[in-house]
Amino acid sequence: MLMCIHFLLTGYLFAWVLIGIDPGPGRSPYPFRLIMLLATMAFHAFFGLSLMHGTEILAPQWWASLQLTTDQEALLADQQRGGAIAWGVGEIPTVSGILGVCLPAALLVGAYVVQMVAPLGELAMFMFPGAIAAVLLVAFLFILKDKRLMPGDKPAWSFRELASSFYINPRKAPDFTWAWISRFLFVLGQSFLLTYQAFYLLNRIKVSEADLPNEIFIATLVSSVLWIVSSVVGGRLSDASGRRKIFTLVSAAVYGIGLLVVAMSTEMTLFLVAMAITGIGIGIYFAVDLALVADVLPDPKNAAKDLGVFNIASALPQSIAPAIAPTILLVGGGNYSSLFMIAGVCTILGAFAILKVKKVR
């Protein structure tokens, strides 16, 4: 009880120091708060890792007092699972309000749910995440207060007008076009990884089917934690320097290098290193790329439509990658390394496409 009270009070004080709005004596400057946040996240990461890889149960006398020492393996498994949660998921509430964490958080939670329901079979591994998404989506629809246009502000509707909204003339908006191409190539490389990492782990790394959900969860943890940290740091550095292109270029190239390291991985440790590299790259890329796009929109008055067109660059590759990957694997003799090498090349080409943007520094 005393330990619970201790963590409750210290957690409250920690949150107040970082993001509290109530006045207090000697508030620390924001850069120092960011450093303190990152240092705390690093501590939780190492603490979680020590629990994950520990082979002895902590405080065995306490468990004995509860008469819960009959199944030592189950207790150790719960302790290791708790370490995994402390390593990855434990960092998310701290930075959930910071731009750029939604997608890695979703990937992390999804991987964790899949790992938890894996013993129930493949159907449960698909149905449980889908059911959670459906419930949250329905809640969103009921909670969101939709902003409606006044009758006089509604544009005339026709099929021709609808079809034309999906097209932007590349000659009239070259910077937007090159930013679109860059995002398309980047997400194409990412889609190869997300779609085929399970098959790669099974066929190349030789992970067993029973261990596959746990290994994917660990890989997602590594990528997501660094994704969150790099998105915060990269976004702040980009704003401080007033530059977008160099951060987008370098981060996309880093992600491409990470995919190339994936292609060379023959054991789990190197694969986790590769996932760490991709996490750094994608965190900075998505934190800065959207700001760059906002600066090159063809028509600021129709920003929603233009951003919808830009979103096609994120959605379309997720359909194209699974469609063309079997052909790549067939030509490569079933070699998944060649698939990820092509993914890395696509992402690096996306990095260089951003150089064609002239309006943004």
Description:
The chain is an all-alpha fold. Helix content is 74%, strand content 0%. It contains 14 helices and no strands. The longest helix has 30 residues, at 174-203. The protein is globular, with a radius of gyration of 23 Å.
Defining traits:
361 residues; mainly alpha; 14 helices
Describe the secondary-structure layout.
Blueprint lengths: L1 H18 L10 H24 L6 H6 L6 H16 L4 H4 L6 H16 L4 H22 L15 H6 L9 H30 L8 H30 L3 H20 L3 H28 L7 H29 L4 H18 L8
Helix pairs in contact: 2-4, 6-7, 6-10, 9-12, 9-13, 9-14, 10-12, 11-12, 11-14
Task: Give the rounded overall mean pLDDT.
Answer: 76
- Distance between the ends: 55 Å
Q: State which percent range the strand residues make up.
A: under 5%
Low-confidence stretches: 88-99
Class of secondary structure makeup: mainly alpha
Gyration radius, in Å: 23 Å
Roughly how much helix do the residues carry, as a percent range? over 70%
Number of strands: 0
Shape, please? Answer: globular
How many helical stretches? 14
| Major sheet details | none
Please provide the ordered H/E string of secondary-structure elements. Answer: HHHHHHHHHHHHHH
